């Protein structure tokens, strides 16, 4: 009786959310290796042009921002910078303005451009209209179905909840009544010699079982992205279990050699973390707000970081966050992106995430075929 009710729930949730789950899973596959693909296919953007005499020191960031903005249309402003300590990498200057209430992708971004600059010479190598970038479109399709944040984000969020319930009800429906050798074989292996209906059932049933862990992981981490309230609840609840006392830190003096706080802060962070993978800076226009500089220590990982905050009046550090001294809840949520895209364990976990996402994309298709076959069969009985 319980299984019958769960089957009904599984069927209808699958039919309601199937198309969204298919789109989100397929786009998830594409985004897993987007960084590697873009670096390989567009080296002119991400790597500095080879020169015989490459200066050893970078142009001050404040000057580079001005150089980048000069290549944009009037009114378009740089709001974020990605700095790479590697000597052969360009720095990326982003100019973004969004309309949160607009419905379609074409209206969601007023503008979104990336300017790729050689930081040692100030030479602008590429100005990209990121709004038309393939992977940006795929990412927006993954996050909000190209329907804008106000509507599409919520639709994807609730479909993710349905997917989590589908995964849990699916394992109950998969569970064999009796653990006999034949049922065990049928439950854990696919009979590729079977007829099409049976083969499709095996693909749905067996692959669904093997992808369960990743499906729930994708759903959980996806919900953290979709619903900030959910993230806050998880973080607060886990933090309450952690008795770690916040450390009282004394910050070193930051020399004010350059003319701007931003330049001095960046110089200090680069000198402190010369082996960092990437620095990310969201430019603060309000001088009353501290200027943040996030340091990503490992390639393709956001969960191993330092985050410096500089007073924009005197240039000194006001706060320093680190993945090393976070409470449990904050540490878990800081790993959310790495878990979601599979970068938590390097290339091997990314491959697993890619394959699991591909399997998740197949489940709505095989599930729909199972429903369609049963629907046709019941219609024949009634006629």
UniProtKB/TrEMBL annotation:
It comes from the Bacteria. The chain crosses the membrane at residues 12-33, 151-175, 207-230, 351-372. InterPro entries: PepSY-ass_TM. PROSITE patterns: PROKAR_LIPOPROTEIN. Keywords: Membrane, Transmembrane, Transmembrane helix. This is PepSY-associated TM helix domain-containing protein.
